[in-house]
């Protein structure tokens, strides 16, 4: 079993910044990749950014250039730094991780989500 605990959400003014954190714990043999997804009311969940264990990153066009994702493999913690926030960034942000729990078995895990609200 793997647990993902998110933190750092809240209410931010447009143009402001925030940092989201996701800490993974439990039966972790290796983290293959982690990512942030978000879901706004009435919309489908969408990718925000992902990072592999090797450090390769991928960003949605909507956050490219104003977001940085990082992974501390030793601490099994992923960070997402976002700046120049817009009201359309308002959503519940979910942490995702693909984790090998043994050398030969991997699973996909999701966190509970953290609310980010950007006021105009």
Task: Explain how this protein is built.
- With 120 residues, the chain is mostly beta strands.
- A hairpin with a 6-residue loop joins strand 4 and strand 5.
- The chain is built from no helices and eleven strands.
- It is 0% helix and 62% strand.
- The radius of gyration is 14 Å and the shape is elongated.
- The strands form two sheets. Strands 2, 4, 5, 6, 9, 10 and 11 form a seven-stranded mixed beta sheet that branches. Strands 1-3-8-7 form a four-stranded antiparallel beta sheet, with no helix packed on it.
Task: Please tag this protein with its features.
seven-stranded mixed beta sheet; four-stranded antiparallel beta sheet; 0% helix; 120 residues; single chain; mainly beta
């Amino acid at each position: 079993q793997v647990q993902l605990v998110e933190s750092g959400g809240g209410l931010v003014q447009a143009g402001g910044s925030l940092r989201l954190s996701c800490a993974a714990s439990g039966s972790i043999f290796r983290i293959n990749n982690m990512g942030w997804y978000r879901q706004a009311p009435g919309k489908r969940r969408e990718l925000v950014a992902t990072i592999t264990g090797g450090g390769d990153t991928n960003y949605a066009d909507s956050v490219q250039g104003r977001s940085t994702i990082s992974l501390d493999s030793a601490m099994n913690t992923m960070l997402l730094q976002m700046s120049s926030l817009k009201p359309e960034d308002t959503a519940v942000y979910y942490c995702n991780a693909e984790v090998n729990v043994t050398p030969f078995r991997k699973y996909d895990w999701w966190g509970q989500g953290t609310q980010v609200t950007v006021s105009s």
